[in-house]
Amino acid sequence: MASVMTKHISEQYDTELAQIRELLMEMGGLVEQQVNNACTALINHDVQIAEEVRDVEARLNQFEVDLDDRCVSIIAKRQPTAGDLRAVVSVMKVITDLERIGDEAERIARMALTLADNPIPEDQYAIFRGIHNNVVKMLNRALDAFARLDVENALRVIRDDADIDRAYNELVRHCIGKMRDQPDEVEMSVSLMWAARALERIGDHAKNIGEYVIYQVKGQDVRHSGIERPN
Amino acid sequence: MASVMTKHISEQYDTELAQIRELLMEMGGLVEQQVNNACTALINHDVQIAEEVRDVEARLNQFEVDLDDRCVSIIAKRQPTAGDLRAVVSVMKVITDLERIGDEAERIARMALTLADNPIPEDQYAIFRGIHNNVVKMLNRALDAFARLDVENALRVIRDDADIDRAYNELVRHCIGKMRDQPDEVEMSVSLMWAARALERIGDHAKNIGEYVIYQVKGQDVRHSGIERPN
């Protein structure tokens, strides 16, 4: 009788956790879309898309509050231990990272609005586009690794963050040079640097998600394992 | 007998939670020190202090991992519900914010090292010093509010964040003007903007801590309550 009861509770727990993870993936999809739209708005000077990004931000915040509530409630009701508890804790951590990625996407959209008043530069934001492509791939891989609990891909995300940092530093050097040569375009360069910084931070958050995959699967905390961060 | 047992467990829980909160406050004190030292290093072009900040960062990371472990373990062992669970969840959220503040302090220290090669500017970083003073007060008030579960002070921290954002935007405008006028000093201005940005982010994290105080005391989620963030 006791074991039937236990099984019953455990099944309910699994169902609820699966629902939470599904909702988290939905939030992840929305976040990816926000990053993509914000960067598209910036690259094409598209004011309308930039404003859409700002409108969608409220939905992301609601996702965060709802998901956090569900996590606290599943812990309180089901009282998971060991691996089950780690699974919920990982979700709670990832929620925070996704919400912060949403904030960064909104910052990029705001920079897109500032830049849109100027002509599109000759290089069509070449370095920024490169960073954007890599960050989008990294974020997608991180979410995929989280959904499948795929340690190998999670490790790859953690490693890939260093490439983002390198490209970001290249962009900053490029902007500093440009500001020196064309003082009248300083404001544009500053906006572009802020946007690139936001992308670099999104890379950091994707890396965090990769680390939570490993924490969840192996119960091992790989944060602060000596990988350097950029300034 | 059952009630004696319950009381016993509850006392153990209270003791463990008190230890966790004490450790969190210790981490908070170290984080405050890091912010102060990083800004002092920047303002006085003091390379030695800047390097100390970078050395201490590793200790903060260890705090984060240890505290997170203790929180997961207290949930697994004691299975708290309602207010008790909220208390642990709040601690887990604050740990993340403190760790990120530590990261920002390290970024400021890195900028301090970049700036130290130049003469101290005439205005002796006046706007930056102003932001630093306000952020330090805000962070101190946030930690104090968390220690005492003081909602009134927590609300004040949330309100004060807007002042930081205003001062930060003033500094950015100042730097943009300076870069336009003195193209050969662009790199200095960029470093100062990054450092100020880090301070502004520290203000955001202090605000988050204020919000977790309210969440813990009132069980009410005040995040995303419509307060605007700066770019």
SSE diagram, text form:
2 copies of one chain form a homodimer.
Chain A: H1 2-44, H2 47-78, H3 82-115, H4 126-148, H5 151-181, H6 186-218
Short note summarizing the structure:
The first copy, chain A, has 231 residues and is mostly helical. The first copy, chain A, is 85% helix and 0% strand. In chain A, helix 3 (82-115) packs antiparallel against helix 6 (186-218).
Question: What does this 3D model show about the protein?
Answer:
2 copies of one chain form a homodimer. The first copy, chain A, has 6 helices and no strands. With 231 residues, chain A is mainly α. Chain A has one domain: Methane Monooxygenase Hydroxylase, Chain G, domain 1 (Up-down Bundle). In chain A, α3 packs antiparallel against α6, α4 packs antiparallel against α5 and α5 runs antiparallel to α6. In chain A, 44% of the residues are buried. The C terminus of chain A is likely disordered. Chains A and B meet through α2, α3, α5 and α6 of A and α2, α3, α5 and α6 of B.
Which labels suit this protein?
homodimer, about 230 residues, mainly alpha, Methane Monooxygenase Hydroxylase, Chain G, domain 1, 6 helices, elongated, disordered C terminus
Rg of Cα set of chain A: 20 Å
Largest sheet of chain A: none
In the CATH hierarchy, the third-tier topology of chain A is known as: Methane Monooxygenase Hydroxylase, Chain G, domain 1
- Into which percent range does the helicity of residues of chain A fall? over 70%
Report the order of strands and helices of chain A: HHHHHH
Question: What distance separates the N and C termini of chain A?
Answer: 59 Å
Proportion of residues in β-strands of chain A:
under 5%
Count up the domains of chain A. 1
- The CATH superfamily label of chain A reads Phosphate transport system protein phou homolog 2, domain 2
- Annotated CATH architecture of chain A: Up-down Bundle
Overall 3D form of chain A: elongated
Number of strands of chain A: 0
Say what oligomer this is. homodimer
